[in-house]
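Quick note —
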Amino acid sequence: MSTPTPDPALAAARYPMIAALPDAARLRLLAAGRWARVPAGTLLFDDRQACEGFPFVVEGSVRVVKCAPNGRELPLYRVTPGETCIISSSCLLGHEDYNARGVAETDTVLLMLPKSDFDALLGEPAFRSFVFHLFAERIADLMQLIEEVAFHRLDQRLAAQLLGKGRLLHTTHQQLADELGSVREFVSRLLKGFAAQGLVKLSREQIEILDPAGLRRIASDGRQA
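Predicted structure written out below.
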């Protein structure tokens, strides 16, 4: 972790809410915020850790996952520039510890607003509206995730995961399993089934989509092509 040169203009460009704050509040946010540059793979927070502040992602992305005792992970969402972390928000608002894990997915630049300044800025309508608007959006995303996990079979979710990324996907079975919150063996078995049906062609760390329409049928209603 290193400290980059503060760039208030870039922070305001990523988060227009900053420019909408009154002068005193904007200066407080920019003066109190701690800048950090972290490499990909850095653990930013984990289960049962205290939440020290509110993160603005200025560059890069953060992957937030829920971890099971057996090591399996369920991806919850990503935080990219302009977005916020609902887990951090809820922990700060509820005075609770983290209940998920956040990892820098790429080299990432953060502006971390300390808890005391977060609490004070909630009195500003622009900041409060920003926090709760993105909070509502994340809740909607998580409800969709719950619906997919609870009501859609893994083959449907895998088929949907393969679509919309071009004809050739450079990925591993483990990466797909991580994205789906499953285990590699199940994903590999389904991919081999897709290959046997002529839907995909498998090779090392690469999947070629041969029949997008067939995958769409599986993704939509689970019927095999």
